[in-house]
Write a structure and sequence with these properties.
Layout: E1 2-6, E2 11-15, E3 24-31, H1 40-49, E4 62-66, H2 75-86, E5 93-94, E6 106-107, H3 112-115, E7 120-121, E8 124-125, H4 151-154, H5 158-161, E9 172-176, H6 185-189, E10 195-197, E11 204-206, H7 216-220, E12 226-229, E13 234-237, H8 242-245, H9 262-265, E14 272-278, H10 292-299, E15 304-305, E16 316-319, H11 326-333, H12 337-345, H13 349-355, E17 367-371, E18 375-382, E19 388-394, E20 397-401, E21 407-412
Parallel strand pairs: 3-16
Antiparallel strand pairs: 1-2, 3-14, 4-9, 5-6, 7-8, 10-11, 12-13, 15-16, 17-20, 18-19, 20-21
Length: 428
């Protein structure tokens, strides 16, 4: 095992390979608060990449209802229980000492790589703690969709739990693709070295010629986004639509600027923002404050990693839902939840402008700029903590620039109103 630094955990951790980092890293932010679970992203991916024989169970993009849904079923609760069994009562965060390279404090528990040191599978030592889902667990990609939970439901007060003006039950939609992790579990576990990260963008791929279908990647991926195809007897996974990242679609980007993935561009609810993060040779994020992902993830910490305690340093980030009990969210996104939700509930001037960039174009946004406009409103907001705050809203214009520095987005805070000329009495 080597020692690598995981900024999401705030410490060094064990990893089977030497530390190495790409020049750019594919990353994305999903805003859970906006998702309507229309599954347009799911079908966009399915119709593009996994429509062939043997891929019927493959949903590289899926949207599942939490807390009961999951694909494969119980993927997260099973691994959380395995980690707790390996390190009883010690899977905890110490959020007291926070800083630039440890924004959430320090995770004191064991990652999937560290827990594997004391755990063996039936065929020998493991490189990462994990399990192989059963065939039944792959059968229903949207099981328990929109199934709610809550304290009142546990007591059987179904009618009372759904009374207006306040629902006392909750659920939320979790959007998932491969996180193209900095320290992938699938890559660590592969005995054939068939899995690699592309040096130009950090996308994690499986070499189809080297893979022999041992399914170690399926077992070790904590998010279960590496999938075995029985017809070819090799594994497959999300490829981040890398031809689009390379700007090879001459129709959409004749200048060769990178495009967002299919699931991103199809999003109806405008919950998705994808980008490329500039990395330093030591793996730290380059200081690029006008990159929208850098702003949301590192500067404001309003977007949080999914299960950072697994230790893979996932490059998928989420703006947590406001209405969900905090202990559940802390388990899922770490101790930065309260800060993230407070900011999102009453965004300041710059954050409100950046939030307009979600799904504003198919091209990847590398830089944003804000042109200030007049104040248009003052709104009193009650934060989740109960405090009241006055939000000042300005009709600013936010501009987005692609990789070659060309402006391709210009959008205002207030949506423009267009009035069509009247043509006749029954005109619509």
């Amino acid at each position: 095992m080597s020692e690598v630094y995981n900024w999401q955990l705030g410490r060094k951790m064990d990893y089977p390979h030497e530390e190495a980092h790409p020049e750019w890293q594919f990353a994305f932010v999903f805003n859970i608060n906006r998702c309507i679970a229309c599954q347009t992203c799911t079908m966009a991916c399915k119709s593009t990449w996994t429509f062939s024989k043997g891929q019927e169970h493959m949903w590289w993009n899926n949207v599942e209802s939490k807390p009961y849904g999951g694909y494969p079923q119980n993927w997260d609760s099973k691994l959380l229980n395995m980690l707790e069994k390996e390190n009883p009562g010690k899977q905890v965060w110490d959020a007291r000492n926070q800083g630039k390279e440890k924004p959430f404090g320090e995770f004191k528990g064991k990652t999937i790589f560290e827990a594997a040191n004391s755990s063996q599978s039936i065929d020998g030592p493991r490189r990462a703690l994990g399990y192989l889902p059963t065939d039944d667990e792959w059968t229903a990609p949207n099981i328990h969709e929109e199934t709610a939970t809550g304290e009142t439901m546990k007591r059987g007060e179904w009618s009372h739990s759904a009374e207006l003006p306040e629902h006392r039950v909750w659920f939320f939609y979790l959007q998932r693709i491969c996180n193209h992790c900095t320290y992938p579990g699938c890559l660590a576990a592969c005995p054939r070295n068939a899995i690699y990260k592309r040096p130009e963008d950090g996308v994690v791929l499986i070499d189809q010629e080297r893979c022999r279908g041992y399914r170690k990647c399926v077992e070790a991926c904590p998010y279960k986004k590496a999938m075995y195809r029985p017809t070819t007897r090799i594994s497959e996974k999300c490829i981040a639509c890398f031809p689009r990242l390379e700007g090879k679609d001459a129709l959409l980007t004749p200048d060769g600027a990178p495009l967002e993935t299919r699931c991103m561009t199809a999003c109806v609810g405008k919950i998705r923002l994808q980008g490329l993060i500039k990395k330093n040779p030591d793996g730290k994020w380059a200081d690029v404050p006008d990159n929208p992902l850098h702003f949301l993830i590192r500067d404001r910490q309003v977007a949080l990693p999914l299960y950072p305690q697994f230790g893979t340093e996932p490059n998928g980030y989420y703006i947590p839902p406001r209405w969900v009990p905090r202990p559940y969210l802390v388990q899922m996104f770490g101790p930065g939840v309260e800060k993230a939700i407070e900011q999102y509930s009453c965004p300041d001037r710059e954050l409100l402008a950046v939030l307009q960039l979600f799904r504003a174009s198919q091209q990847v946004i590398f830089q944003y700029k804000i042109e200030k406009g007049p104040k248009v409103a003052e709104v009193e907001v009650t934060l989740p903590s109960g405090k009241k705050k006055t939000q000042e809203i300005f009709n600013d214009t936010v501009l987005g620039f692609n990789k070659i520095g060309k402006e391709f987005i210009r959008i205002t805070i207030e949506e423009p109103t267009f009035e069509r000329p009247k043509q006749h009495v029954n005109s619509i």
